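Troubleshooting: if your tokenizer reports a length mismatch, compare your output against this known-good record of 393 residues.
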Amino acid sequence: MSIRLLLLEIGLFSKWRLITAIILSTILSAVTLFIIKNAVVGFINTSVVGSGMVTEFITLFGKRRVNDILYSSHWPFLLKLISFFIVFIFYFLLFYRREKRRLFFKSLNQLVTDTKKYVGSPDTKFKPVYQDKNLLQLTESINMIISKMDTLIMEERNAQRTKNELITNVSHDLRTPLTSILGYLSLITEDKYRDEVELRHYIDIAYEKSTLLHRLIQDLFEYTRVQNHQLKVKKEPLNIKEMLGQLVEHNLIEIEHRQFVCNETYCSNPLITEADGNLLIRVFENLLSNALKYGIKKKQIDICATLDNKNILVKVISYGNPIPALDLPHIFERFYQVDKSRGMHSESSGLGLAIAKSIVEIHEGEIKVESSVEKTVFSVYLKSLSQDEQSLK
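Known-good structure output:
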């Protein structure tokens, strides 16, 4: 043990115990040296062996030199001082060990007490005041366990709240189109229509609401599968340029019908990632669909794909009303589009972006959004396969 650590531990002792230890060590040292001195003198005076040893010592060094050492120099005082210091340190260390042991058990008992308090009151905090190395490590371990438990409890509460909110939202969103379907079907079954044209109108509305209900149930089912990690993901090398090109081609009729222009910009480098194409296309279908719905200021969609360090960066840019800054952190939460006033579209389930985010995370990627008065940019980051990795695949 270093002198510095020893002094730090001594500094933890209470002052009156430290003073008591010093006083008792001084008294015991003086008494011990007095007893030793008398014992040695008595041994010399009463023992032939002791007297002989003294006589031989005087003969060896000379009587004058012995007298000089004993009576006319500083050696006797120095010898007494060193002897007293050695004996004092011995007794003080005994008191130190005893006090350290007492503090150890006191701290251990306090730790046990705090642990029992935590069982009854989870708000109890463990204060790392235990100076023993082992107790410090034990306290830190307990605090880590408690921190982990608090995190798990909080996650459990959030999961419960999320489940309750999900049930509430699903009930509301399923009930809305179902109520319309039942209402119009009721009018039809009760012959409450003027002519065949109005009958056809009622049937079209019921079909439209049924389609929305089917889409909502499908999205909800897919969202539940993604959240519960029940999706079967089959990753293979995927050319992002080809995938995006096919996506635009398949939606070209819808794009032209809405009188939009879609610009594609790809870098010259190969953009190959390892992904499940059927899942990943769902992400960009949703982003393209959102761009068509909300790009009302400038009917233009820009799709850009390039390399960003070791990642593939795909941007889907639309030009519509900005997303409020307060809403940006929550845009990937389920039912965002339904609950927010940015645009209430009856054909939207509000689960698309939540599903997209989960699919991107399954592929160890990241999806972000930035929005300004000028444009809204969704950025998707995916891992890029190097040439060596592509050859291995």
